[in-house]
Amino acid sequence: MQWTNNLKIAVIENDILTIGVLIKDMPAFEDINDAQEALALIKEAIKIADDEKTKMVEIMKKMKQTKSFLEN
Asked: Rounded to two decimals, what is the model's pTM?
């Protein structure tokens, strides 16, 4: 299925934007194996999003520390 292949590529490339678009436009699955594969990919995509969120929080903390240092 093309949607699944596109999601695989987006997950491999850590492409958060494409993952979001694909999940938003997720097709209905008639085959249980396709649905299970999609679920596994979505779980991996959630891990990627959580990792990116953690990185962003760290960056924001460092920026606040830098700003505080420069203001003093």
From this structure: 0.79
